[in-house]
Amino acid sequence: MTESETKREKERDTLDYCRASIQSCLWNLESPKIEQFDKDWFVKDLRENLNKKEKALAKLEYLKHSKLRSEMFRLNITTTPDRFLDWLDDMKKQKGINNFWKEEQYKEWREDIKKHPEKVIRMT
């Protein structure tokens, strides 16, 4: 898989995280019993995740419409970046291929735990 695809998956993963976090903050802010300290914390978290979301969206659009489009042109692929990415996602789903970004993160975490087993919290 290309580096560009991995970057795209990273940004999509970031967007999913931000959407979930933003929704959670909004639900918590709707509570009538929320204290000012909690409200301030949720507003701060909401602002940070909205900014992360905007950065991820901008980077994803750049990857799709600049990097991917030029690579598609070089390879003489005659479709839009969105259609190509949809086709790629369908192919990955059919073949049972996971999100490469998450797989790489899990691999790094496993290697870090092997090197530093003291970081694992024992729940006994």
Q: Key terms for this structure?
A:
124 residues, 4 helices, mainly alpha
User: Sheet bearing the most strands, described?
Assistant: none
SSE series:
HHHH
**Alpha-beta classification:** mainly alpha
Average of pLDDT: 83
Write structural notes for this entry.
The chain is mainly alpha-helical. The chain has one domain. Helices cover 78% and strands 0% of the residues. It is extended, with a radius of gyration of 19 Å. 6% of the residues are buried. The mean pLDDT is 83.
Topology (elements, then pairings):
Blueprint: H1 3-29, H2 36-74, H3 81-95, H4 100-115
Helix pairs in contact: 1-2
Give a summary of the structure in a few sentences.
The protein is mainly α and 124 residues long.
